[in-house]
Design goal:
Elements: H1 11-14, H2 35-46, H3 51-54, H4 80-84, H5 87-122, H6 126-154, H7 162-173, H8 177-202, H9 206-235, H10 239-258, H11 263-268, H12 273-282, H13 284-292, H14 297-304, H15 309-318, H16 328-365
Helix pairs in contact: 2-6, 2-9, 5-6, 5-7, 5-8, 6-9, 7-8, 7-10, 8-9, 8-10, 9-14, 9-16, 10-15
Length: 366
């Protein structure tokens, strides 16, 4: 199915090009020295998977409630707008908000695909080029999976959110290699990991759960890659350069916080957009949801040394400072374990189906 048929706005109105001033770096030093980066590279090679095979695309999706989640997870649940809707209208909201969420995942993954290829081009050391090359394939697979879900299962897609677009503009157009790492590997992917995790843990639809769990298994390595690559580099930066990067982090975090207001959905459905946005901003449930989105970013910025007064003040304003003590290595191990558990369940179901078929054939012969 052509994307033109499922987007809520014409593609011609939403595409854009970003000029880049990056410098290509060649490295003739092939005596790799960072063992942890090379370990990630080995894991990246070993954990490649096929989105067409690993995901069971035969699973059904109920368009009235694609994620099979309680209504409390809808951002405008409890608002006057929500209370005024009949069941058909509420089903439409659930369909559209899911399409909007997964559309932003798709667009973010394409941004990550472009950034990963840029890292291969610009990063100065060969071990980072090795790992980034595996990430390019990961991101292409993620784009494939989210695109297929939107086209084949939801039949609906939304353009890129303006806040995400603005951040991608900044990250892609900056010629400094570390800013690509910081913007994509740490900030955008860190927030995406938390958003994927919330859906993975809340949804009762096995297809949506599997897609997000498998993507998270890859993304956890990507964030670890950003941490390892930047930790030593930022330790050597002067105060002015570090302040500049912290200011970028603050601006980026506010952009990412505001991208989850879903303004496009309320306007597209002809709901009271102003009332809906105001409700989402003030909803205690959604404030908690937005704060959880920073559970991966806060400890990572602390770990790489970008946790000065400006960053701490911004996180205090957002109410997310408590996440600084989270063990990101433990989160990564949990992501790996959940994906493997879903795989084991899928294999068990396949084996049961095969066994049932064999028993049926024997009974028919008797």
């Amino acid at each position: 199915m052509s994307s033109t048929r499922i987007y809520t706005l014409p593609i011609e109105q939403t595409g854009w090009q970003v000029p880049g001033g990056a410098t290509t770096a060649f490295s003739w030093e092939y005596d790799e020295s960072r063992d942890r980066l090379l370990s990630l590279y080995e894991r990246g090679k070993q954990r490649q998977w096929d989105a067409a095979e690993r995901i069971d695309w035969s699973l059904d999706v109920d368009l009235d409630n694609p994620l099979l989640t309680p209504d409390e997870s809808v951002p405008i649940y409890g608002s006057r707008t929500w209370e005024s809707l009949d069941e058909r209208g509420r089903a439409q909201v659930r369909h559209h908000i899911t399409a909007w969420q997964f559309s932003q995942f798709l667009h973010g993954e394409q941004g990550a695909l472009i950034c990963a290829s840029k890292i291969v081009q610009t990063v100065p050391d060969i071990d980072s080029k090795f790992y980034a090359a595996t990430q390019v394939m990961d991101e292409a697979r993620h784009v494939e999976a989210y695109s297929r879900y939107l086209h084949a299962k939801l039949g609906l897609a939304y353009p890129i959110n303006p806040h995400l677009k603005a951040l991608l503009d900044d990250v892609i157009s900056d010629g400094r290699w570390d800013m690509t790492y910081l913007g994509m590997q740490v900030l955008i992917e860190g927030l995406a990991l938390a958003a994927f995790g919330l859906i993975r843990d809340l949804t009762r639809n096995p297809l949506a759960q599997a897609i997000n769990a498998y993507v998270m298994q890859d993304e956890a390595r990507h964030v670890a890659f950003g941490r390892l690559a930047l930790r030593d580099y930022y330790r050597e930066l002067g105060a002015r350069e570090r302040d500049e990067r912290e200011e970028f982090c603050v601006e980026a975090c506010y952009l990412m916080r505001d991208r989850f207001l879903a303004e496009e959905v309320w306007g597209n459905l002809d709901l009271d957009a102003e009332e809906s946005i105001r409700f989402v901003k003030e909803s205690s449930t959604f404030l908690q949801f937005r704060s959880l989105l920073f559970s991966r970013i806060v400890p990572t910025l602390r770990d790489i040394g970008l946790f000065g007064p400006k960053v701490r003040a911004a996180f205090a304003d957002m109410g997310v400072l408590g996440f600084e003590a989270i063990d990101v290595e433990e989160l990564m191990a949990t992501d790996e374990g959940i994906a493997e558990s879903i795989d084991a369940q899928r294999r068990a179901q396949v084996e049961q189906t095969i066994a049932a078929g064999g028993a049926g054939a024997q009974a028919a012969q008797r």
